[in-house]
Design a protein that fits this description.
This protein is α/β, with parallel strands linked by helices and about 230 residues long. The chain has a domain of about 160 residues: Rossmann fold. It contains seven helices and nine strands. Strands 6-7-8-3-9 form a five-stranded parallel beta sheet, with helices on both faces. A four-stranded antiparallel beta sheet has the order 2-1-4-5, covered by helices on one side. Helix 5 packs parallel to helix 6. The chain is globular and about 50 Å long. It starts with about 20 loop residues before the first strand and ends in a 5-residue tail after the last strand. The N terminus is likely disordered. The chain binds adenosine-5'-triphosphate (ATP). The site of adenosine-5'-triphosphate (ATP) has 10 residues, from helix 1.
């Protein structure tokens, strides 16, 4: 089944807790003549919770977006489940590695129509909307089913972030790339979303995440290893 997600049918997946789910090899991102970061190498293993830290402008967002296939790189390789990123069919890749940031883009309509809409995309046609899973996740967030009928135009920034999390998590990605996802939220909602990510990860030991935040207390709660990006010279 998973083989269908890869462009080249001759490639085989290597899936084991001992193999990195994501491998970054000598990666470099240049903006005009200046490298934001270069010679960046690390691995992300199944089950890991990793913080990406660095000063403002050190390129944390650029890194996470590059890992999601949303930004180019000018050097090095990104390897997901043993296969280089460019051997993947991009829509499939982006449903396995999902990037979430603090200002999600949502469609018009209700919360639930936003959650259902992703299944109309060809890449998710083999999956179906699972309302029970969503209700379970909402329960964890101390929200009831009426939340699903709220119009997007009438929800708060924090609630929009909740919708973005639910929309991503229901697709069962292998890797989440969380780019300051709770920066504009109150402490209670932030902790609920942290709990939600933990539940998502505990559902499958192969799942892993990278999380950027300027809040060291949050990072110490939800990650156990750090990748540090150096400031530009
Ligand atoms: N699309 C772009 N075009 C030009 N420069 C960009 C672009 N995106 C980011 N940059 C620049 O690249 C550098 C790294 O940006 P990035 O947003 O990745 O940093 P960051 O570490 O995530 O910062 P912060 O902690 O403030 O969110 C910054 O100097 C930024 O201005």
């Amino acid at each position: 089944m998973k083989d269908q997600l890869i462009k080249s049918q001759s490639l085989k997946l290597e899936f084991s807790p001992n193999n990195p789910i994501l491998s970054v090899q000598d990666l470099g991102r240049r903006l005009e003549k200046q490298w934001v970061w270069s010679h960046l190498s690390f691995q992300l293993f199944p089950g890991e919770q990793v913080a990406v830290v660095g000063a403002s402008g050190s390129g944390k967002s650029l890194l996470l977006r590059a890992l999601a296939g949303l930004e180019p790189v000018q050097a090095g390789q990104i390897i997901f489940q043993g296969q280089p990123i460019n051997s993947w069919f991009m829509p499939s890749y982006r449903s396995e590695i999902i990037y979430l940031h603090q200002r999600p883009a949502l469609w018009e309509g209700t919360v639930e129509s936003n959650l259902q809409q992703v299944y109309r995309l060809a890449v998710h046609r083999h999956q179906v909307y699972n309302s029970q899973l969503i209700l379970d996740y909402l329960h964890l967030l101390h929200k009831t089913a009426d939340f699903l009928q709220r119009p997007i135009s009438a929800i708060s920034g924090g609630e929009a972030q909740i919708v973005a999390f639910l929309r991503a998590l229901q697709l069962s990605p292998k890797v989440l790339l969380l780019d300051e996802p709770t920066a504009s939220l109150d402490a209670g909602t932030s902790k609920s979303l942290e709990a939600l990510v933990t539940v998502w990860q505990n559902e499958d030991p192969q799942r892993a995440y990278l999380w950027t935040s300027h809040d060291p207390t949050q990072l110490s709660r939800i990650t156990n290893r750090q990748i540090t990006l150096k400031e530009k010279n």
